[in-house]
């Protein structure tokens, strides 16, 4: 032990020296780190850890990352408990003065994007009830691709336990595109009414043609009131999932039920045949008194395929795009985030999606399409369509080789069916009517896809 004292001229001198240690020596690096003096995190590493925590990286993974990035081969230069203490302090500091930080971030977003919009609903006590925001890119995308959107809520994303929902659609690259986000205090009808009406207001009054949600009754009532011209559709995957839960004893154990049920829901396009098929299904498996099947049958116009054949759905039959976006959001946002961190990380998530879109734009402009069929329409499609849409078109063009076409009326109406050698099920053995109008400028098929 050494004791140092100051001199009058501000120097130092050793006042006491004890050669014997008062404790056993630490021999290994692992032991040395257990001393407080040997377990210090330098400022640069602290900033690195702070950014990792804000991006939802767990303390355990941070410990491994720091150890791998040290480069000395000595492992992490501080204790795991020291890291946990730092993470806890960062969390406390992040919560402090949350609303001031949130306002500062929103002001910064507004200064960078003149078309950025945020709306806040407060209750009688001036407490935040609902927050909805969108940026200029969201508004542009909605103007082009907002005819069909999905809406689904998610939980455990913020400190205040407010459900969060995204308005999601699909763009020309067949990618999910975000139109806006909303934080709700609850999932009651008034909250959804405010969210939907405010969203449409920010989007210059444009109502979506079709909106897909889960089976939430509050959403259904709010859409009916605020979006009367919008066709509301239930997520088909939710119906199938609910069927597995409610009638699992038949769904999993009765041979053939799952196949027949899925074929009827996924493949049938005729309302009349759907009605007959449902009656046969219920009778065959003796489910006439099942309350779940009775309820979803009464609501069949909300989810069954035949009742949406003339409704634009942009290839979507479920809220999977919203659910995927919510899952991606949770990868960016730590659980129970304060509001300012939530909004900042949401913006980072949006930038990540924008980067994916820019990549597709680059591919479309720099790479030529591969012509596979050698027919004139393929050349036009290669010029008009994006890469993703051209690939979908190319597959449809290839599959058209299995169709047999015959004239129904001279010059304008044709009957189309699958060639006998390509029919693999009763759903393939159908005949469709294709009508050509305006001298070939408009073509319509009663299959509902074209």
UniProtKB/TrEMBL annotation:
Belongs to the FHY3/FAR1 family. GO terms for cellular component: nucleus. It comes from Brachypodium distachyon (Purple false brome). Residues 148-240 form the MULE transposase domain. Pfam families: MULE. The gene is LOC100830070. Signal peptide: none annotated. Putative transcription activator involved in regulating light control of development. Keywords: Metal-binding, Nucleus, Zinc, Zinc-finger. This is Protein FAR1-RELATED SEQUENCE. It is found in: Nucleus. GO terms for molecular function: zinc ion binding. It comes from the Eukaryota. One of its GO terms (biological process) is regulation of DNA-templated transcription. The lineage of its organism: Eukaryota, Viridiplantae, Streptophyta, Embryophyta, Tracheophyta.
């Amino acid at each position: 032990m050494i004791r140092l004292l100051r001199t009058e001229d501000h120097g130092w001198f050793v006042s006491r020296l004890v050669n014997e240690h008062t404790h056993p020596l630490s021999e290994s690096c692992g032991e040395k780190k257990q001393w407080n003096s040997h377990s210090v995190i330098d400022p640069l590493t602290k900033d690195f850890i702070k950014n990792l925590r804000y991006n939802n990286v767990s303390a355990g993974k941070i410990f491994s990352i720091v150890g791998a990035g040290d480069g000395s081969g000595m492992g992490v230069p501080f204790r795991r408990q020291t890291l946990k203490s730092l993470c806890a302090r960062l969390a406390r500091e992040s919560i402090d003065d949350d609303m001031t930080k949130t306002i500062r971030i929103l002001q910064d977003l507004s200064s960078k994007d003149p078309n950025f919009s945020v709306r806040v609903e407060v209750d009688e006590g001036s407490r935040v009830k609902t927050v909805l925001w969108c940026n200029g890119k969201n508004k542009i995308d909605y103007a082009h691709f907002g005819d069909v959107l999905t809406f689904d809520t998610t939980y455990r994303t913020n400190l205040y336990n407010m459900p969060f929902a995204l308005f999601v659609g699909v763009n020309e690259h067949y990618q999910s595109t975000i139109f806006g986000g909303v934080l709700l205090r609850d999932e009651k009808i008034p909250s959804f009414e405010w969210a939907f009406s405010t969203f449409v207001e920010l989007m210059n009054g444009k109502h979506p043609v079709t909106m897909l949600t889960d089976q939430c009754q509050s959403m259904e009532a709010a859409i009916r009131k605020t979006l009367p011209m919008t066709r509301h559709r239930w997520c088909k995957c939710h119906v199938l999932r609910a069927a597995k839960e409610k009638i699992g004893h038949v769904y999993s154990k009765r041979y053939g039920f799952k196949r027949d049920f899925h074929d009827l829901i996924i493949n049938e396009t005729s309302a009349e045949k759907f009605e007959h098929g449902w009656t046969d299904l219920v009778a065959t498996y003796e489910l006439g008194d099942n309350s779940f099947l009775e309820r979803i049958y009464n609501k069949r116009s909300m989810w069954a395929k035949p009742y949406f054949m003339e409704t634009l759905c942009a290839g979507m039959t479920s809220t999977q795009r919203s659910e995927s976006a919510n899952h991606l959001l949770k990868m960016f946002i730590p659980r129970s985030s304060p509001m300012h961190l939530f909004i900042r990380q949401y913006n980072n998530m949006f930038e990540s999606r924008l980067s994916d879109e820019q990549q597709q734009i680059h591919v479309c402009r720099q790479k030529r399409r591969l012509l596979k069929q050698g027919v004139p329409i393929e050349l036009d499609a290669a010029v008009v369509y994006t890469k993703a849409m051209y690939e979908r078109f190319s597959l449809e063009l290839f599959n058209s080789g299995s169709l047999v076409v015959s004239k129904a009326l001279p010059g304008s109406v044709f009957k189309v069916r699958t060639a006998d050698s390509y029919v693999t099920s009763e759903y393939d053995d159908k005949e469709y009517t294709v009508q050509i109008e305006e001298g070939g400028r408009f073509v319509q098929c009663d299959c509902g896809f074209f």
